[in-house]
Design brief:
The chain is an alpha+beta fold. It folds into four domains: 32-70 and 360-442, Outer membrane lipoprotein wza domain like (Outer membrane lipoprotein wza fold like); 82-88 and 300-356; 95-124 and 202-286, Outer membrane lipoprotein wza domain like (Outer membrane lipoprotein wza fold like, Roll); 134-198, wza like fold (2-Layer Sandwich), CATH 3.30.1950. Helices cover 19% and strands 23% of the residues. The chain is built from ten helices and 22 strands. The protein has helices spanning 32-44, 66-69, 79-88, 95-106, 172-183, 226-232, 263-271, 312-318, 384-390, 420-424; strands spanning 117-119, 134-139, 147-150, 156-159, 163-166, 192-198, 203-208, 214-217, 245-250, 256-261, 274-276, 283-286, 291-296, 302-305, 332-335, 338-341, 353-356, 361-365, 373-376, 404-409, 412-417, 440-442. The strands form six sheets. It has a five-stranded mixed β-sheet with strand order 8-7-12-9-10, sandwiched between helices. A hairpin with a 7-residue loop joins strand 2 and strand 3. The chain is rod-shaped.
Length: 448
Amino acid sequence: MVHAWHGGRLPRYGDQPNSPPGEPLSRHPRSPLGHGLRRLLLAALAGSALWGCAASAPPPPPVENLESETAYWRQDEAFPQALAVAQSGIPSPTPELDALAVVAAATTPELKLDAILAPAGEAAPAVRLRPGDQIGVQVYAHEEFSGTRRIGTDGTVPLFKVGALRLEGLTEVQAGNLVAKALLSQIKQAQVQLWIIEPAGQQAHLIGRVRKPGATDLPLNRRLSLVTFLALGGGLVEDADGSQLTLIRRDHEGKQRCYHFTHDELLAAHLSGREAWIEPEDELVIPRLPDAFVYGAVESLGAHPLRPKTTVAALLLRAGGLKESANAREIQILQGEKITPAELSKPLAKGQVVFVPQRQRVYMVGRGLRENGPIDIPSTGLTVVQAVAEAGWFTKRANVGSVEILRYRGGRQQRFAVPFEEILAGEVDESDYVLQPGDLVRVSEDLF
């Protein structure tokens, strides 16, 4: 509450809201005897602890640099924690995934989504033999060379008197031609048919920030698109970095290739009728978003996913918004040793810490004040006179000579007497009595 000034002057103690402008009410009438007793009592108690501190007590230390002294947010209990996070960070909850994403991003960086896209209606590529496949071999007119075999873990198949042949990575036609060529050492002319009787279980793997990471069984009778593959994994979670997806694929020669694209690029291709098809043993890596941090007077402290172009204001909303006690004018950005005022519309960078300080307050107590309770300290500072005005001024029985500041620092209490009447009379500079966060201003009543 801001007190209204009367007739261009500060109100005097004893003024009431309905007083005519500039005309303070007289104090309660007292008998001459009562007035004399009051003077004797005041004289006897002038230096007593009943009145707080002696009138000769020095004023609070003067404020030499108002700008630095009013950076009250540095005294906030949450500030050291926020500064420590800005300087040293917090270990990632997914260090292995982060390392894999970095390596994948650096592997064949020139390969993009276009390299594996194909029209959705295009015929499926021929199936290639894999370890674990059970195959059938039919050599016409030579049943002794016919039968079933299973491809071993090394990719080879023992074929009767011919010996082991490496068939991994070949199509059925290619494998049949290779068997026919090998049989020429046994027969003059070989007509060979080779086919897969029972394919080995085929899987692809989702690694990282999806709802259901891990191996996914691939259907044996149809192709699976990358979009459908992600959907089977439950889709991306909230902290997934959809801007850095990587598909790790090994060709039939065992050479590893990494294809890099964004989730948006994949969806755009799908909607345009082009698909990236999953192959057995493919690995799709979905990394985690970097973190931005919020500490102080917000509803949800700590790390929050930092999406591209996220602003300070957006991050604060993501953190549940400001608490009622937040000092919205003093929000800071902390990064390493650097501390700067926050610009709410500016995008955040990886690892930055947003610190929202509490509003700093002083506390007004005593029956000599119209209102008791906390008062926020503005960024321009607060003097004792301004604080009393915010508290509604004095009551008519206030003892203006009893105004004092109680300050607690390092477990010790300090008291400063405030010559309020001299301040109002212009005999003492009001700016000598600037309040600090946590100060208590006490004003008692006259005893008589």
